[in-house]
């Protein structure tokens, strides 16, 4: 075991001990996961995307400010926009590889060129997540507007290159955001994905927040249709050797859903670090009071061990935790609650009145 691997394992073990102990005063670790927003540019304009600004690339000075942290970090997640469009993407992969970080990337799959695939294959990429929500071009075009066969072709080439190199990684995972317009195609996509070397398929319910057009597509209003095709997808995965992970079914007993899926312990203030394009540093994707600092203005260590995050570590997982923790979507996954699917109560109430009699049909 080399020095970097020892540092990573030590960091992991200490972080894992901080969470159940809720320790905050003498934290000496770095985060286990760093999520880095590389660019806001994207070659797609997906129908359900909430991104408004599509300009700007990460300043490399931000990367330099976390270089000393990477030897302790287990996972380096590259995010966007479309992260493969970042003009220094290959350099980021090389940097992660030098520090034995596992690379995760979330992509629409269309820019998976030969050079990008090689950079991931040669630098300890652990998983490539491809956002893909259709088995037909017509549905794909209505959601993402790209070329479905190009994306599937890129994935097939990637799988072939992985096999030629004799590697098990990276794992290829399709992320499928399920809604009324595409749920019928899920079983067929499982079969197609298995045929080209995809390893996993993860299904997520579309989240409408406050957009009524998305809310109308929510499977909350098409529960039997949703459950039927989720089950078919799992069965297809078993037949074809592809791991399919689905969310809880609507037909599941409510009490069982709550018991099985409510995780009351938050790990983020110790384990997670999110770095935005402008250098802002956060430890949570929720509303925890904004960033703990900015890497173009401060040192990483001053923020990670600073007063703001220390106070949060003291309060989280206690009766005095902030209100945003009590309504956290990451911790609470009761899918039979319409608030999980549609954040706006006004939109939810309107559609409940319109669709109410059709729920379960």
From TrEMBL:
| SUPFAM superfamilies, per the entry | Radical SAM enzymes
Keyword vocabulary terms for this entry = 4Fe-4S, Iron, Iron-sulfur, Metal-binding, S-adenosyl-L-methionine
CDD domains with a match to the protein in the record: Radical_SAM (cd01335), SPASM (cd21109)
What this protein needs as a cofactor is: [4Fe-4S] cluster
Domain Radical SAM core as annotated: residue spans: 38-161
> Which positions fall inside the 4Fe4S-binding SPASM domain?
266-328
Is Iron given among the entry's keywords? Answer: yes
InterPro entries membership: 4Fe4S-binding_SPASM_dom, AdoMet-like_SPASM_containing, Aldolase_TIM, Radical_SAM_PqqE_MftC-like, rSAM, rSAM_sf
Q: Which PANTHER family match?
A: PQQA PEPTIDE CYCLASE (PTHR11228:SF7), RADICAL SAM DOMAIN PROTEIN (PTHR11228)
Task: Please report the name of this protein according to its UniProt entry.
Answer: Tungsten cofactor oxidoreductase radical SAM maturase
């Amino acid at each position: 075991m080399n020095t970097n691997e020892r540092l990573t394992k030590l960091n992991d073990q200490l972080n894992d001990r901080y969470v159940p102990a809720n320790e905050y005063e003498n934290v000496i670790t770095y985060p286990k996961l760093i999520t880095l927003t590389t660019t806001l540019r994207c070659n797609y304009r997906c129908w359900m995307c909430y991104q408004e600004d599509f300009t700007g690339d990460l300043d490399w000075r931000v990367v330099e400010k976390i270089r000393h942290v990477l030897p302790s970090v287990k996972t380096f997640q590259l995010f966007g926009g479309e992260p493969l469009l970042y003009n220094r993407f290959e350099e980021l992969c090389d940097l992660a590889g030098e520090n034995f970080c596992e690379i995760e990337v979330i992509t629409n799959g269309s820019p998976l060129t030969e050079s990008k695939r090689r950079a991931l294959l040669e630098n300890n990429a652990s998983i490539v997540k491809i956002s893909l929500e259709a088995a037909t071009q017509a549905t794909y075009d209505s959601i993402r507007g790209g070329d479905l066969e190009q994306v599937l072709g890129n994935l097939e080439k990637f799988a072939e290159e992985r096999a030629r190199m004799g590697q098990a990684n990276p794992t290829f995972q399709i992320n499928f955001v399920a809604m009324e317009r595409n749920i019928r195609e899920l079983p067929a996509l499982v079969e197609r994905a298995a045929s080209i070397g995809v390893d996993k398929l993860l299904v997520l319910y579309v989240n409408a927040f406050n957009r009524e057009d998305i809310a109308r597509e929510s499977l909350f209003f098409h529960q039997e249709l949703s459950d039927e095709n989720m089950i078919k997808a799992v069965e297809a995965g078993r037949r074809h050797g592809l791991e399919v992970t689905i969310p809880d079914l609507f037909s599941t007993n409510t009490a069982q859903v709550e018991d099985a899926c409510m995780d009351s312990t938050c790990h983020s203030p110790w384990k997670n670090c999110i770095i935005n394009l402008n250098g802002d540093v956060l430890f949570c994707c929720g509303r925890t009071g904004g960033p703990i600092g900015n890497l173009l203005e401060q040192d990483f260590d001053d923020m990670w061990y600073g007063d703001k995050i220390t106070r949060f570590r003291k309060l989280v997982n206690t009766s005095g935790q902030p209100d945003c923790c009590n309504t956290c979507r990451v911790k609470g996954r009761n899918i039979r609650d319409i608030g999980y699917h549609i954040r706006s109560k006004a939109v939810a109430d309107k559609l409940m009145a319109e669709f109410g009699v059709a729920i379960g049909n």
